[in-house]
Amino acid sequence: MAPSTSSAVTLRVNGEKYTLTVDHRTTLLDALRERLDLTGTKKGCDQGQCGACTVLLDGRRAVACLQLAVAAEGREITTIEGVADGDRLHPVQQAFLDLDGYQCGYCTPGQICSALAVIEEHAAGWPSAVTEDVRAGAPALTADEIRERMSGNLCRCGAYAQIVQAVARAADQAKETVA
Q1: Could you report how far apart the first and last alpha carbons of the chain are, in Å?
Q2: DSSP state for residue 1 in the 8-state scheme
């Protein structure tokens, strides 16, 4: 008898549990979009290069097109649909809206999910490739730091200047909330 090529998995997405049977080759992106109808996460390149499908797995960024759904079992998955608090936008979403950090909007869900992780990583003191002194603690969240940290998310419309401003504003608001 041939081994099965599918399994039942339970995915925790945006605080809800979903049990579904998936082919072992099904990506998390396809499970989210095609099986759970969570279409906010976009399919861009389907090769992990553009970041349009960025979601959060246990609070860390992941490109859902390269993550197998079966490997996401037991992890907390946050998509763009789970970022807002009811009708109240998350401060990152509000900053993107206020500062026009989008053009066509296709990459925006992935940009926002990535920005959420960028702000958390920075607050935790993680250095980036452009951090001048990695021993000095948390670097200033400069435009160069934001650009480097967001570099895995492409915007074909070129809204980068506004995206950097939106991430900076949301990071400042996060600091004020903690203080």
Answers
A1: 62
A2: -
